[in-house]
Prior knowledge:
Elements lengths: L1 H9 L3 H17 L14 E3 L2 E3 L3 E3 L10 H5 L5 E7 L12 E4 L4 E4 L8 H10 L5 E6 L10 H12 L5 E5 L14 H22 L5 E5 L5 H13 L4 E4 L20 E4 L3 H15 L5 E4 L5 H10 L3 E4 L1 H6 L2 H11 L4
Parallel strand pairs: 3-4, 3-13, 4-7, 7-8, 8-9, 9-10, 10-12, 12-13
Antiparallel strand pairs: 1-2, 5-6, 6-11
Amino acid sequence: MYALLRPLLFALDAETAHHAALAALKGAHALGLTQAAAAPAECGRTVMGLDFPTPVGLAAGLDKNGRYIDALAALGFGFIEVGTITPRPQRGNPRPRLFRVEGAQAIINRMGFNNDGVERLVDNVRRARFRGILGINIGKNFDTPLERAADDYVHCLRAVYPRASYVTVNVSSPNTRRLRELQGADALETLLAALAAERARLADRHGRRVPLAIKIAPDLEDDAIAAIADLLVRHGMDAVIATNTTTARNGVAQLPHGAEAGGMSGAPLAARASKAVRRLAQRLRGAIPIIGVGGIMSAADARARIADGANLIQLYTGLVYRGPALVRECTDALCNHAT
């Protein structure tokens, strides 16, 4: 079905197509037209103390506000991640802000954490019927000073804690000014300490310890990756997600839309994301798990990312170009090649 729909969607501008595709998926789900096959029993993985039915998840960004959780889960994902969400609603950057680079199977976005705010997300999650593993990705509002960024992340952590299977801390989007500076050693030390302390308080209050994952950029030098890995272990973080989008434009700048500002995902990101996973695996040596995301466009890409050292993978841009069949393709590949 997606092969028939894709030309129609690609005739629209990318952001309009994004909303149209999600609305169509939600409608199809309501009519009972989406039904994923059950995952083989041997497909399950225990990561972050959570039992994942398959290692193939949906990356954050596709469903920022948690409006489509049930419909997306019906595509066969082993886990869903929604967000990025901020304490207060914000409109994000001006349109146009989402572009397909079709010649490279890539997407460039400069969305800027557009979302309805954490309270609306929590309401949407509460109404969803999905009872699988749900990650909630949190960030800071664009106008919150960097020195007060921890306040925004702690605010979001408190709000989503009762509803999240795990929480992802996004310090790596290139589309919120200066956000990536939070990956620096001193800033990250402060943020992780605040989150770890708040998580301990919330765990006592709610009687459950919700895992925390940190999502990093693909454009970091090896020394920076090593420093981040050490900080994550020191502060008791539960996973690292590698990676977010890249600001590099190697091989795509000459293509239509290839020079647009923002973060690039899709096939051109694969090499950078893969390298980041390998560097993390070398440094962490199994101390905490790695979730690999970025440029996974096929079963071969999924197997390669697991071979790099990832415990789980996530999809996003591959779905735009390949459709929902990619979920099953990657699941079958990883279940038939247990690691």
